[in-house]
Amino acid sequence: MWKPLQLVKANSSSHPKTWIVIGIGVAGIVILAETHRRRRRAKLIKREDFGAFMERFTLLPFPQPPPPAVRLSLAGLTFAVSDIFEVKGYVTGFGCPDWRRTHEAAGNTAMAVTALLKNGATCVGRTVIDELGFGITGENMHYGTPINPEVSSCIPGGSSSGSAVAVAAGLVDFALGTDTTGCVRIPASFCGIIGFRPSHGAVSTIGILPNSQSLDTIGCFSRDPSVLHRVGHALLQFKSVEPRRARRLIIADDLFQLSKVPSQKTVHVVSKVVENLSGYQAPKHMNFGKYVALNVPSLKGFSQVSANLQNGTFTLKALSSAMVSLQSYEFKSNHEEWITSVKPKLGRNVSGCVNEAIKTTYENVKTLYKVRTEMRAAFQSLLKDDGILVMPTIADPPLKLNAKKSLSSELHDRTLALTSIASMSGCCQVTIPVGKHNACPISVSFISFHGADKFLLDTVLDMYRSLQEQVNIASDSLPLPDTNGNIDASELLKEKVCPPLLEPVFLYLFNSRNC
Fold this sequence. Notes:
By secondary structure, this protein is of the alpha/beta class.
């Protein structure tokens, strides 16, 4: 007999407690082994679905009408929804376990989800979001960070990170998320897929948890422009026929100067495509920041006297300041009672943002809404009924996962300066992938006036194939000198652009990582 076992047997006869100790030791080993097995299984599951889903279920589509009725437009397609859409019989978590714990199962399904089911699509589950819909990174301390299928070492972008990843990984045909301050557009750009933010109010938000209802929209992700087009028709209920209009593209040169992507990969690609398509006027170029400065006078209330207005970047910072303040004010109105009573456990940066929003006093609210009204009017005047503004979706590549360095205020400023344009005007925007730069996906965005959603989706469908062909041509060509201009990105950081009453929350939010 093995010598150690003989010793154990001999001692156990005179010391019965020895068996108890052995039993406890064996139980500990079994528990450790089981814990290790479960962790390995969880990692395997995350690899299989890229960590995109937090809950799987199946909502079957409405019955297909019998022949000779036309087949439902979304028949055979699958989709997912972010953890902000109500689904009858399920608890909506808002990306936060404490919210899920303190709320009951939904009594009805969100109207947007029902519209998709009525048109033949099948819902297969709910996806991860940043906590309470705050954040642009896609990280969630409770449910993990979905893996970006295009560049797994980097963040997917947020807050609708899980929906973007589910589409980019080919797990579903399309997915829904919400876009408040860029929450669909940013992850679409980082994950290399198409992202659509409709005109504000164009898609019913009944049945979604509000973050900031003056900014919230229901957005959509897709890999295929024809799928996006069909989903848009289902959600927006377009008229079946609309007269075709010539398209007038306006390139915002100052906004592309903020981008770190060479213009031959963006502006040049769009310009070459327009040259070869019928029904398009030659692109015009403009300084968008200066146009906003002239046509949105209420932004002056968000700025101190400045001697340096180079390229209008000062105005864009003021616009993003107004957006952040409006979001914080409405979030406080919506959720202050729950936050103060429950005191939820939140990630460090999200917690800081939420607490600042809750404790700040807002005394200049009318100006925030006035900026929205003026921005929408300025867009209508600029684009009329045939114009599309072309701009970068995002200025910087995605951050590395678990980066020790927090999201810098400079990067955050450039991000929100771009996303605030559609958010504060309520206009519709589509993010379009245009290849890669330094191994990361890049994109351009098309924005059209409020209510021009069908016009915009038709344009994307018309141009998309030619854009991808031109991307391939550009990637095979010899590199060209960067022609983005000489704008200093730090220019966005040099001016204080918020009124004293709103300055504390603005400065906090713009120096936090996930707000």
